[in-house]
Specification:
- The protein has 309 residues and is mainly beta.
- The chain has one domain (40-299): Beta Barrel (Porin).
- Helix content is 12%, strand content 48%.
- It has two helices and 13 strands.
- The chain has helices at 2-33, 119-124; strands at 72-82, 86-100, 103-117, 133-136, 140-149, 157-165, 182-194, 202-215, 223-236, 240-251, 260-268, 273-284, 289-299.
- Strand 8 and strand 9 form a beta hairpin.
- The longest helix is centred in the N-terminal third of the chain and has 32 residues, at 2-33.
- It is elongated and about 70 Å long.
Length: 309
């Protein structure tokens, strides 16, 4: 029995030594590439700005049209985010829940993404692995929207939003998710303009502004504070809709933390099941061109006669 215990302990000790030696050898290239000082933790080298992470790490917030969801809806959207140095494929999932006439609740997450970066991008982002490809799980977001002022013929509708990002994402060592919390608070204004008495052709103009904050790995600045902005328009017909928006946020680092994007979308407008096509182009500090196809399932709600927005 003692011989067996000794053999097991010897095997475990040798395996531990082997793993430690392997780790040291794996990261030697990183130490040389980035002139490691021998004491600073590698996370302190990370640049906590949108331009130096995967496409889902510090995204530009989705614009609210100053509307409250009236139905339960589940969205399932495969996506591709393509740039010169990073190709990412993921799955977006989201759930909207109406809580009252003026309040709704939303949760969303990218449960899995598959990525591949080239050498230049790997080094620019201080990725810890020679092979900069793999899989990661995204951050869990949750938030609420509520009506501040209802729309009428003379004034727009105004809503307030509060969204929070948990530190649940993986892949920090691949610079995919920041492993740090964040939140944003915003106000949206929107108004419909109809083109006939039946209200079956509507143009909605909307705008958004607010505050976005997230924790960083920076020694001097543990948090980046940003200003959110955005404008957009949505044209609605009886069976489908078209939407265009320009949005972004401005951080105070001014080093990759001022992403701006153009979003174009089109979708169907039926009672329970809809499809939507989304295209997003990075304009500044966001190098990706993204495309996604959504399946949206709607049911129940506080107003069964509500048309899906």
């Amino acid at each position: 029995m003692n011989s067996a215990k000794t053999l097991i302990l010897t095997i475990l000790t040798l395996a531990s030594i082997s793993l430690r030696a392997g780790d040291k050898e794996d990261y030697e290239w990183w130490n040389n590439q980035h002139n490691w000082d021998g004491c600073t933790h590698w996370t302190r080298y990370l640049n906590a700005s949108a331009a130096y992470w995967g496409p889902n790490a510090l995204p530009v917030p989705v614009m609210n049209e100053a509307l409250i969801s009236k139905q339960f809806s589940f969205e399932f959207r495969p996506e591709a985010h393509l740039s010169k140095g990073d190709k990412t494929f993921d799955l977006y999932t989201g759930l909207k829940i109406p809580l009252a006439e003026r309040v709704d609740f939303e949760v969303f997450i990218v449960p899995v993404e598959v990525f591949e970066m080239d050498t230049a991008t790997r080094n620019e982002r201080y990725v810890r692995h020679i092979d900069a490809s793999g899989m990661a799980g995204g951050d869990f977001w949750f938030g609420t929207n509520f009506t501040v002022l209802k729309e009428n013929k003379r004034r727009p509708q105004i809503t307030a939003s509060a969204y929070f990002k948990t530190a649940s994402g993986t892949g920090l060592d691949y610079a995919r998710y920041t492993d740090a919390p964040g939140y944003y608070l915003s106000f949206s204004a929107g108004k419909d303009f109809t083109f006939n008495k039946h209200n079956n052709r509507t143009l909605r103009l909307f705008a958004q502004s607010g505050f976005y904050a997230y924790q960083t790995w920076d020694f001097l600045h543990n948090q980046n504070d940003c200003v959110i902005y955005g404008i957009g328009a949505k044209y609605t017909l009886p069976a489908f809709w078209l939407r265009a928006a320009f949005a972004g946020y401005v951080g105070y680092f001014n080093k990759g933390d001022r992403p701006a994007v153009l979003r174009l979308q089109a979708g169907t407008r039926y009672k329970h099941m809809n499809f939507a096509l989304k295209y997003q182009a990075g304009v500044h500090d966001f190098k990706y061109h993204s495309i996604g196809l959504s399946l949206i399932l709607s049911f129940g709600g506080i107003d069964k006669n509500h048309d899906e927005k």
